[in-house]
Amino acid sequence: MEIYKTYKFRMYPSDSIKKKLDSFLGTTRFIYNYYLNAKEKNNNLKFSDMKKDLKRLQEENTWLKDIDGSILRTAIDNLERGYERYYNKLSKKPKFKKYSSNQIYRTPCLRGEYKGKKYQTIKLDLERRVIKLPKLDEIEIKGYKKLTKLDCNIINATVKRIAHKYYLYLLVSEEINLPKFCPNYIVGLDLGVKDLVITSNGEKFKKLDFKREERKLKGLNKWLSRSQIGSKNRLKIINKIEVVNEKIKNMRKFYNHLITNKILEANDIIAIETLKVKEMIEKGKNHLAKFIVNSNLSELIKILKYKSKWQNKRIYEIDTYYPSSQICSHCKRRNRELKDLNIRSWECTECHFVNDRDINASINILDEGMKLYLKDLRCELKAS
Ligand SMILES: [Zn+2]
C-alpha cells in the first residue's frame, strides 16, 4: 500500500540563502493578498484565471521572475482552498495575510528528462545532510539522526519560518507492506468534555492545560497593540507570539500522537463517535463547540484514521445522534431525562447500576462498533 508521510527538518541556510528564502516567503504573502483583493473586488474571478494572469504580473513586476514559479501557483491554490472551506462553512472568510501570519511556502517536486538525463526539482541528500530546492543553493539540514536513506518519492516541500528559524517539511509517498488484520481487541472511545478521550476500558486522557501559554499570549497581545507599527520592538513581540503559538501547536501534536499510538498499540478495532465539526462551528455559542474546536479533536481523529490504515486496523464511526450518554451500558435502558452534560455519574432507574457518564458512553459506543464489525464480518463470510 502507498502511504503519505511528512518529515520535518530544521534548515541552516547561509545568510545569502536566508535573504532569498525571505523573499520567497514574502512573495507567497504578496500573491495571496494580491488575488484575495482581486477576488473581493470581483467575486466571479476564477482561480484558474488568476494562474493565467500570473504571467502578466511577472511582466509588470520583474522581481517576480527570480522566484520559484511554483510558489506563485501554490499561493493561489491556498487561496482557493481557503475559499472552499469558507463556502463549505468550515472556516471564516479568507483574510489578508499580515507579516505576522504564518510564513510558509510550498513547492512541488517536478520530475522530467532533459537530454536523456532524468532530473527532479527537489533533491534530498541524507548522507551529506543537504536539501536542494528550486532556485536555491544547497541548504544544510538537521533531524532524524538515524535516517540515512529514504526509499520514497518526494511529493512536495514546505518551507516555514518561525521566529527567524527555518524548517523544511517534506511530503513523501512510501510503499509499505500491510500487516494481517487480527481482530483480537476492540475499544470504544468517547470524546469528552472534561477529558479529551475516555476509553471503554476506563482509561482517561486529560485535556492539555494551556493556561500558562494563554496568559502569556494575552500579555504579549496587549504589548503588541500598544507597540508602534513598523518598530523593531513590534517585530520582537510578533516573534515571541509565534514561538508561543508554535509551542502550543507542537504540544498538541505530540499529545495526539501519544494518545493514538497508545490506543492503536492495544487495540485492533476502534469505535468512535462521528464528530460533526461543521455543525459545531455553526452553533458557535455553544461551549461544547468551542471546546471541540479548541482541543483539536478532529486532528486527533485524522491521525487515528491514517495510522489505523497503515497498521491495517479498523475504525467504526457511530452516528452522532446515537444517545450514547443516555443509555445505561448495563441494561441498555434509555434514561431520557439525562440531558445535562455536567452530571458526572448517574444511577439507572431500571437496574440501579451507577454509571460514570463518560465511561458509560464509551462502552455504548464500543457495543455499537461491535455491531458494525459483526455486520461487516457476515458480509465478508458470505462473499468468500
Ligand atoms: Zn440500567
Question: Can you walk through the features of this model?
Answer:
- Helices cover 43% and strands 22% of the residues.
- It is globular and about 80 Å long.
- It is built from 9 helices and 16 strands.
- The protein folds into 2 domains: 2-175, no CATH class; 186-208 and 256-383, no CATH class.
- The two termini are 22 Å apart.
- The strands form 4 sheets. Strands 2-8-9-1-7-6-5 form a 7-stranded antiparallel beta sheet. The chain has a 5-stranded mixed beta sheet with strand order 12-11-10-13-14. The chain has a two-stranded antiparallel sheet with strand order 3-4.
- Helix 2 packs antiparallel against helix 3.
- The model has no long low-confidence stretch (mean pLDDT 88).
- The protein is an alpha+beta fold and 384 residues long.
- The structure holds zinc ion.
- Zinc ion is lined by residues 328, 330-331, 333, 348, 350-351, 353.
- Zinc ion (ZN) is lined by residues 328, 330-331, 333, 348, 350-351, 353.
Question: What brief labels describe this structure?
Answer:
single chain; 384 residues; alpha+beta; 2 domains; seven-stranded antiparallel β-sheet; five-stranded mixed β-sheet; 9 helices; 22% strand; binds zinc ion
Write the layout of secondary structure elements.
Elements: E1 2-12, H1 15-41, H2 47-60, H3 69-87, E2 103-108, E3 111-114, E4 117-120, E5 123-125, E6 130-132, E7 139-142, E8 153-162, E9 165-175, E10 186-191, E11 195-199, E12 204-206, H4 211-226, H5 232-266, E13 269-273, H6 277-282, H7 287-294, H8 297-310, E14 314-318, E15 345-347, E16 354-356, H9 357-383
Parallel strand pairs: 10-13, 13-14
Antiparallel strand pairs: 1-7, 1-9, 2-8, 3-4, 5-6, 6-7, 8-9, 10-11, 11-12, 15-16
Helix pairs in contact: 1-3, 2-3, 4-5, 5-8
Bound molecules: zinc ion.
Zinc ion is lined by residues 328, 330-331, 333, 348, 350-351, 353.
